[in-house]
Amino acid sequence: MRRWNGWGEESTVVELPAHGAAFLGELVGAGQVLADATLEQVLAQVPASRISAPHTLISLDAVVRVRHARGQSLPDWLAMREGRFGVFPDGVALPETAAQIRELLAWAQQQEVILIPYGGGTSVAGHINPQASAKPVVTLSLERMNRLLELDEESLIATFGPGANGPQVESQLRARGYTLGHFPQSWELSTLGGWVASRSSGQQSLRYGRIEQLFAGGTLETFAGSLNLPTFPASAAGPDLREMLLGSEGRFGVISEVRVRVSKLAEEEKFYAVFLPDWPRALQAIRTLVQARVPLSMLRLSNAIETETQLALAGHPGQIAWLERYLALRGAREGKCMLTFGVTGNRRQNALSVRQAKQHLKVFGGVFTGTLLGKKWSEGRFRFPYLRHGLWEAGYAVDTLETATDWANVDSLLNKLENSLRSALADEGEQVHVFTHLSHVYGEGSSIYTSYVFRPGNSYAAAMARWQKLKHSACQAIVNNGGTISHQHGVGRDHAPYLPVEKGALGIAALQALSTHFDPDQRLAPGVLLQSQA
Ligand SMILES: Cc1cc2nc3c(=O)[nH]c(=O)nc-3n(C[C@H](O)[C@H](O)[C@H](O)COP(=O)(O)OP(=O)(O)OC[C@H]3O[C@@H](n4cnc5c(N)ncnc54)[C@H](O)[C@@H]3O)c2cc1C
After folding, report:
1. Does the beta carbon of 216 lie inside 6 Å of ligand 1?
2. Which helix (H) or strand (E) holds 310?
3. Is the pLDDT of residue 437 over 80?
4. What global pTM score does this model have?
5. Which residue has a Cα nearest atom 33 of ligand 1?
6. Labelling 457: which of 19, 74, 269, 327 has CA 20 to 30 A away?
């Protein structure tokens, strides 16, 4: 059963190892544990639905409404844990076909209802939270539209319902010998429609591309009609309309069908770990490696603090001490940075790619440690979000931020971003533990993915106030220093105030015109992506 107030399956528990708790205790102080609300306490607050004309596709059940009321951002986490949800949807629509989505749009128009398209509810930017409104709010969940509808094995194009989550996409494709190759860390729960609507990026984007490259076409149901986007391998027929769906965040319509470019399953896949002696060499190594176009499927470089944190939280102090001794002997001591890379393809090509990568990394002092750590990363790659529970139960809040910028600016922006977080709670005398990795690298630049751990304080209100300071400080650092407000998590409500700096007034007006074109009465997720006009 999926957790109602946190991440993933209730049966999966990842605890903070004792060694990790001691490590954090030294850096930010002893954990501060806050009491959690129970589901019963939350259910007691759910108000009567304001839907006056019930619809057979809409559930008014209180548990269903609670389960669709919040996403996975830190404010969502605090609201769920405290049991102070604020606003609940008045109902949850569960269509099974595109025709039913159209029926729900017509009903919403007639009944003057606000609709919020909902995929897996893994948003970390406040995309799917209902807001207080005089009109009833219905969350439109695509979870029942999760099937592989067609597989064109000649063109390698698969057509899916938009609500297929990561495991549903991969299991249906793998049964036929194919993969989409899109593995965001939220893969267990996030959906194809959500990936397209929020421009998602998967861990192996280096091989398979981001969702922009995988998304071949599809259908958008809007208040102005259905927009069907056929697939073409390429086209010069004017602007590409797929771009209107990518990053649309539910504002233009409901994606009812998604066509994606798939690949044959690879013969072999392996992940390796290499340690670079220091950050300047590590940064140069990863940049020149990606610019040399060595055919790797994944590259992730942790800075020195993240490397130290990962080793401390790994939970096997004996083995880690042995590894540290080995690395020190080979020249990777304090300040070392861990680089994980993957190869995916046929055995001969993989062997060649590994040889090229090794030769390249050696020039920068890389110490190769084989496949053990890479295998551990691969096996645990979807378990990391569960550690948030372990940290919370030990009295620590954790959140992440991400951006992207050109190589010439990566180091400078990374430092400014980290420093903005480190100093954000200085007025309270609180330490913030901040660490970063680069995990989506391109010829011209890189994403920057920063995590931060802090103590929540002695109340939920204090925790929220701390988060607001941290988030605002980091977002300012990003937009004022040449970073995009999001590389992969999207805009939602939390990043919407910062978007105009990036898009400019004319750009925002153009996006607003599109939204008004498809949704004249602004019934779809108002305030998401584009802030509501006063
Ligand atoms: C632990 C964790 C790890 C994460 N890791 C990654 C990562 O590695 N890479 C990454 O890209 N993101 C990551 N995310 C962010 C999140 O998973 C992505 O933004 C994801 O694409 C959201 O998909 P979803 O199906 O959960 O969409 P939701 O959260 O349900 O919705 C997101 C937005 O898409 C809209 N939407 C959803 N479905 C439709 C549809 N069918 N039609 C129209 N609009 C729709 C919603 O209205 C909303 O605006 C992570 C989140 C968490 C909590």
Report:
1. no
2. helix 304-313
3. yes
4. 0.97
5. 249
6. 19
Residue 397 within any structural domain of the chain = yes
Can you tell me the distance from the alpha carbon of 502 to that of 485, in angstroms, rounded to the nearest whole number? 8
Instruction: Examine residue 209 and state whether it is found in any structural domain, yes or no.
Output: yes
Burial pattern 187-210, b for ≥16 Cβ within 10 A else e, equals bbbbbbbbbbbbbbbbbbbbbbbb
Q: Is residue 473 in contact with ligand 1, taking CB distance under 6 Å?
A: no
For residue 113, give the CATH number of its domain: 3.30.43.10
342 and 408 housed in the same domain: no
Give the number of the atom of ligand 1 that is nearest the alpha carbon of residue 118: 30
Q: What percent of the chain has pLDDT over 90?
A: 97
Choose one of 359, 381, 403: the last residue of a domain: 381
Domain boundary among 462, 479, 496: 479
Q: For a ligand 1 pocket test, name from 7, 190, 491, 495 the mutation site with the most ligand atoms within 8 angstroms of its C-beta.
A: 190
Q: Is the CB of 166 under 6 A from ligand 1?
A: no
Q: Is the CB of 402 under 6 A from ligand 1?
A: no
- What are the structure tokens assigned to 213, written together? 């490259």
Q: Does residue 152 share a domain with residue 92?
A: no
Domain count, the chain: 4
**Cβ(385) to ligand 1 under 6 A?**
yes
Token representation of residue 32: 């501060």
Listed in sequence order, the residues at least 6 apart from 528 whose beta carbon sits closer than 8 Å to its beta carbon are 126, 127, 249, 250, 251, 491, 492, 493, 496
pLDDT at 22 exceeding the cut of 80 = yes
Would you say the CB of residue 528 lies under 6 angstroms from ligand 1? yes
